[in-house]
Amino acid sequence: MKALLVGEYREGKLLESTYELIGFAQQANAEFELFLAGDKDQLPQVDSKVYLADAASVGEYNPTVHKQLILEAAEKAAADTIVFVHSSYGWDLAPRVALALEAAQVSEVVETTAEGYLLPACNAKLRRSVKATTGKTVITLQAGAFMAAEPAGTPQVEELSLDSASDIEFGGYEQAEAGGVDLGKAEIIVSAGRGVGKPENVEMIQALAKALGGEYGASRPVVDAGWAPHDRQVGTTGQVVSPKLYVACGISGAIQHLAGMKKSEFILAINTDKDAPINEVADVLVVADIKQFAPALTAKLEG
Ligand SMILES: Cc1cc2nc3c(=O)[nH]c(=O)nc-3n(C[C@H](O)[C@H](O)[C@H](O)COP(=O)(O)OP(=O)(O)OC[C@H]3O[C@@H](n4cnc5c(N)ncnc54)[C@H](O)[C@@H]3O)c2cc1C
User: Fold this and answer.
1) Quick check: do 2-160 and 183-302 share a fold?
2) Which residues of the chain are under the pLDDT cut of 70?
3) How much is the pTM?
4) Closest CA to 168 of 68, 61, 92
5) Class of 2-160 per CATH?
6) Under a CB-based contact definition with an 8 Å cutoff, are residues 157 and 50 in contact?
7) Test site for ligand 1: of 219, 223, 272, 280, most ligand atoms within 8 A of the Cβ
8) Which residue of 112, 119, 210, 225 sits 20 to 30 Å from the alpha carbon of 129, by its own alpha carbon?
C-alpha cells in the first residue's frame, strides 16, 4: 500500500486524529506521505513528506479547494490509497476525491485484513468485510479504531497552493449546545460496563462515584441497553475524558472505549478477567467481582 494520509487541522490546531492516520499506516506497513491544509507551526511530528497547503489562504474547510489539493498531493505521492479520518471533514471530502479518481470508497474502517477492510454493520452489532476492486481506494477510518502513533520525527514539507474560486464559502464553527453532564470537567469518574450485569447494579457504581466525590460514566452497551443516559457514555461516540482518577468497572477495554479515557491520569480497573484488554492501560487492575468490590469500597470510603 502506498498511502496519502489526509491530516486534520481545526481552529488553528493540528488534530490528534492525524496521529491515528499515521498509526494506521504503520500498522498496515504502508509507505505513506501526508497532506495537510494547516500551517507550518502546527505540523505533525513524523519522518515523512507533508504536502502543506496554507490554511490562511485555502481555508481550514473548503471541500472544493481541498479536493483539488488532495488530488495533486495524491498524484505526487503516487498513492494507491487515500486515507481520511471518518469525521465531518473526511466524510465530506472522501466521496469527492473517490469520484474524481474513479476509486472505490470504503467508509468507517475499523480493521484491516489480508483481503481488505472490516467495517461496522447493523448499528455495530455485526462487522462486514469488504475488498475494493479498483486500482485506487479512498477510505475513512473510524475515530479511535487505530492506535495513534507517537509524535516523533521531522516532516519534509512541500508547499502546495491553489488559486481557484470555490463554490463554497466557509461561515465558521458553531459550538453545539451543551446538554446533560460534562464528564470532561470531572476529576474522578467511575464507569459502569456490561460486567455490572443488570440495570439495578448501575446504582452501586453511582454510589461509589458519589463516595469518591466524582461523576459516574458508562460504556456504550450500558447506554445502548438504557441502563444509563447517553450523556454518561465515555468513548469515541460518547465523551472524551481525562480525569485524575478513572475507575473502570466491568469494562473490557475495547478500543472505542479506550479512545475516550486512556488519557486519564490514573486508571483503576475492576474485572473478573485478569487478561481483559483494559489491563493494557490500567495502572492497577483488581481481579474481582464488581458486585462485591464496589459496595465494599463504597462502605470503606463512607466509613
Ligand atoms: C462505531 C462504534 C462506536 C463505539 N463507541 C463506543 C463508545 O463510545 N464507548 C464504548 O464504551 N464503546 C463503544 N463501542 C463499543 C465497543 O466496541 C465495545 O463493544 C464496548 O466498549 C464494550 O463495552 P463493555 O466493556 O462494557 O462490555 P464487554 O466488552 O462485554 O466487557 C464486559 C467486561 O466485564 C467483565 N466482567 C463480567 N462480569 C464481571 C463482574 N461480575 N465483575 C467485574 N467484571 C466483570 C468481563 O470480563 C468483560 O471484560 C463502539 C463500537 C463501535 C463499532
Assistant:
1) yes
2) 123-125, 176-179
3) 0.69
4) 61
5) alpha beta
6) yes
7) 219
8) 225
